[in-house]
Amino acid sequence: MAETVISDLPVTTPARISIVMPVFNEAATLVAALEALQPLRRRGVELIVVDGESRDKSAVLALPLADTVLTSGPGRAAQMNLGASAADGDALAFLHADTRLPEGALESISQALAGRRWGRFDVTLKGQSRWLGVIAALMNARSRFTGIATGDQAMFMTRAAFAAAGGFPEQPLMEDVALSRQLKKHGKPACLKARVTSSARRWDSHGVWPTVRLMWRLRWRYWRGESPAQLAREYRDAR
Fold it and tell me: Under a CB-based contact definition with an 8 Å cutoff, are residues 97 and 26 in contact?
């Protein structure tokens, strides 16, 4: 069945962008991640950190480096929804704590949202394996072909599109895929060739190809309608 495309949402260049960063036990690298965003804050970007009941000092470390620090129950979807509800920006960007934006990210997002309602960046994976370049290329190609974005690609959208899509469904896995499906009803994503850099710690810890097989298997089963809760349990057990 063809997807219905809803085209009555406004497409305007955002006056202000809010970055929402969900964190959980990221104290070891969080300060560096937030310091990298300070030039954008000085240019008017709002930075909101949402801590998911970390057992380390993540929330305390974030306080002097963010405009707002919130605490929610654990779960990335719930954290990002809470951050979005507190944001003042006309556009929202969701950034993982282990992902770095490229130079010119603010201009890239603003230009993209002048013509589209949502989008994402290409991704580079930073880690030890020589296969990471191939994995990143496959991720970017798959995303461009399907119109589905992942959290590693720093998804962004207008506030109106986020609201119309219903925000992130509060499920324990594949919340980014689910939101992408809803956003596609409002138009195709802007697939930016500028690259964010994301940590490949998951691939380094568990092996590139075992991780790829696991993620493809879980995505296939999710596409077939299996419970995200069950898939999340299997994902945790496999880590």
Answer: yes
Place of tokens 């937030």: 34
Domains of the chain by residue range: 17-202
Helices 76-86 & 175-183 angle (0-180, nearest 10): 50
Instruction: Say what the pTM is.
Output: 0.89
Rounded Cα distance between 117 and 188, Å, is 8
CA separation for the pair 152, 194 (Å, rounded): 13
Could you tell me the two tokens for 98? 């282990």
Bridge partners (DSSP) listed for residue 22: 50
Q: What is the pLDDT of residues 7-44, one digit of tens each?
A: 556 666 677 999 999 999 999 999 999 999 999 999 99
Strand partners, 121: 192
Q: Max alpha carbon distance in the chain (Å)?
A: 49
**pLDDT at residue 4, as a whole number:** 40
Write the pLDDT tens digit of every residue in 100-111. 999 999 999 999
CATH 3.90.550.10 holds for 17-202: yes
- Listed residue (118, 97, 76) closest to 21, CA to CA: 97
